[in-house]
Amino acid sequence: MTNLIGKGWAAGLLATINDPKNIIISSNDAVVIHDKYPKAQHHYLVLPKADIPDIFHLNQSHLPLLEELFLLAQNVIEVKRCQLDDFKIGFHAQPSMQRLHLHVISKDFVSDCLKTKKHWTSFNTKLFLYYQDAFALIKAGELIKPLNKELVQQLCNSPLECNQCKFVGKNVPDLKRHLLDHRTQKQ
Ligand code: AMP
Ligand code: ZN
């Protein structure tokens, strides 16, 4: 039973991309959707139409596809009239959902859905693999390997360092108040 529930949850992205009304933009080989639980003011996911399970299945034959995913990431930022510099584009080193997906997320990290330490660390430590770094690895003929458990644990427990200054949050609510101040200053 647990397995079935697990599978259902992990397949959520597939259900989302199968409904055309969820597609913001698309190309021959990929689609862009809203992340259902956005961790910032802008948070999109770019997925291939081909059934590539995750980053660990990428090899050199996927380089053109990766370039297409990145192009769509840039396109959605443009469509939303935002600036590339205000975004992080990359993969979670330890993804939880089925089907390869590229995160396109604004650096404000102001969102009601950002609730846990893992939500923060997964985008702001080595748990986040920048697109450029993933592309370089694959281009060099390497495979992306899962991080070992101890490192994941260590990264999950990293201090809550602000991504815009030297502030370190005491806890997630403290960091969130601080991030909101940055956001307000920018407006
Ligand atoms: P990860 O597998 O950790 O790289 O991230 C999966 C992402 O998918 C998270 O940012 C979730 O908020 C998002 N998500 C979960 N379920 C859905 C869904 N059904 N539709 C769209 N996004 C989702
Ligand atoms: Zn700060």
Structure characterization notes:
By secondary structure, the protein is of the alpha+beta class. It has one domain: HIT-like (HIT family, subunit A, 2-Layer Sandwich), CATH 3.30.428.10. The protein is built from seven helices and eight strands. The strands form two sheets. Strands 1-2-3-5-4-6 form a six-stranded antiparallel β-sheet. Helix 3 runs antiparallel to helix 5. The longest helix is centred in the middle third of the chain and has 17 residues. The chain is globular and about 45 Å long. The N terminus is likely disordered. Bound molecules: adenosine monophosphate and zinc ion. The site of zinc ion (ZN) has 6 residues, from helix 7.
CATH superfamily: HIT-like
CATH architecture: 2-Layer Sandwich
Secondary-structure-derived class: alpha+beta
The number of E-state strands comes to: 8
Report the top-level CATH class.
Answer: Alpha Beta
Number of structurally distinct domains: 1
**Bulk shape:** globular
Helix content: 25-40%
Main sheet properties: 6 strands, antiparallel
Q: What Rg is obtained from the alpha carbons, in whole angstroms?
A: 17 Å
How far the N terminus sits from the C terminus, by CA atoms, comes to 48 Å
Which ligands, by name, code or SMILES, are bound?
A: adenosine monophosphate, zinc ion
β-strand amount: 15-25%
